[in-house]
Amino acid sequence: MTNRDIEDVVDTSDEWIVQRTGIRQRYVAGEGETTSSLGEAAARAALDNAGLTPADIDLIICATSTPDNTFPATAVNIQNRLGMSHGFAFDVQAVCTGFVYAVTTADAYIRGGLAKRVLVIGAETFSRILDWNDRTTCVLFGDGAGAIVLEASEGEGKTSDRGVLTAHLRSDGSHKDKLFVDGGPSSTGTVGKLRMEGREVFKYAVGMITDVITAAFEATGTTSDDLDWLVPHQANRRIIDGSAKKLNIAPEKVVVTVDLHGNTSAASIPLALAVAAGDGRIKKGDLVMLEAMGGGFTWGAVLLRW
Ligand SMILES: CC(C)(COP(=O)(O)OP(=O)(O)OC[C@H]1O[C@@H](n2cnc3c(N)ncnc32)[C@H](O)[C@@H]1OP(=O)(O)O)[C@@H](O)C(=O)NCCC(=O)NCCS
């Protein structure tokens, strides 16, 4: 769905959307498609890319705020779609920071010896919780899914090791009313619609993002010069550019896909990874920073070697 297509739905313009957000188009799940069907497709693509099959996976973590059902977990639906009845699967819900939380969780399970190969998926159908009469929100979000496989291996405890080097997660529920869904099983008994005070979210975003990225650099003794790629949550071009500038990260090191996908919440980082690894930018051994901020608020950064 292009910005021009959205002009037929609400009173907006391609110019306004591009100028304020950088978004040019977003995808909307078709009839019969669900978060788990998108997640399954992403999972299969990641497994193919890794030369693995579902038999090689012992844990599936799906980051989503738009599950197929209140329960069972979308990760369990994806497990079933993959024909798996071994191992275990669960969802992580941290809105737009979901993928950063899920990668951190997968890494902790691997380090703790509870899993060897983890399929980490970010999958969303935000189109289903948008108020399509509200131009301040419906132009911003889209649907999609992406996935990676994390595998246990021995390292030397150095930043030259591959995998997750450090993770910094934060949340602060006092910001709840700035970005939330106005329904739920235990409050209204309905699914609800997304509500957001965009300007308020914008005010906090750059500061929160740069704080956790700085913490990741400090924890590993690395700097923005060492970084090969910043792969940010794709909410808004101005937030991405503002964060990179504040941290002295060169624009050519920043992966931007918000123009292609809009804000796909927990799916945005793995979609951006798929684009930048797929076109050959991100290569084995590269130092990659993932970061996100979202409803809650939640925010976080993961520094990893690809
Ligand atoms: C949402 C966002 C793009 C709005 O940009 P903004 O510059 O703050 O715009 P404002 O909300 O101040 O609105 C400015 C004007 O544009 C109008 N407007 C809002 N949405 C519009 C749209 N889709 N099309 C055209 N005009 C629109 C407003 O009504 C307002 O008009 P007014 O001045 O006559 O009252 C911006 O606040 C933002 O990006 N916030 C962060 C949101 C985000 O990324 N959330 C997800 C985090 S995970």
Strand and helix map with partners:
Layout: H1 3-7, H2 14-21, H3 35-50, E1 59-63, H4 74-81, E2 88-92, H5 98-111, E3 117-125, H6 135-138, E4 143-151, E5 163-171, E6 179-181, E7 194-196, H7 198-220, E8 229-232, H8 237-246, H9 258-261, H10 268-278, E9 287-294, E10 298-305
Helix pairs in contact: 3-4, 7-8
The structure holds coenzyme A.
Residues 12, 16, 20-21, 96, 135-136, 139, 196, 198-199, 201-202, 235-236, 263, 293-294 line the site of coenzyme A.
Account of the protein in words:
The mean pLDDT is 98. β1 (59-63), α4 and β2 form a beta-alpha-beta unit. The protein has two domains: 3-151, Peroxisomal Thiolase, Chain A, domain 1; 163-305, Peroxisomal Thiolase, Chain A, domain 1, CATH 3.40.47. It has 306 residues and is an alpha/beta fold. It has ten helices and ten strands. It has a four-stranded mixed β-sheet, sandwiched between helices. Strands 5-10-9-8 form a four-stranded mixed β-sheet, with helices on both faces. The chain has helices at residues 3-7, 14-21, 35-50, 74-81, 98-111, 135-138, 198-220, 237-246, 258-261, 268-278; strands at residues 59-63, 88-92, 117-125, 143-151, 163-171, 179-181, 194-196, 229-232, 287-294, 298-305. α3 (35-50) crosses α4 (74-81) and α7 packs parallel to α8 (237-246). Helices cover 34% and strands 21% of the residues.
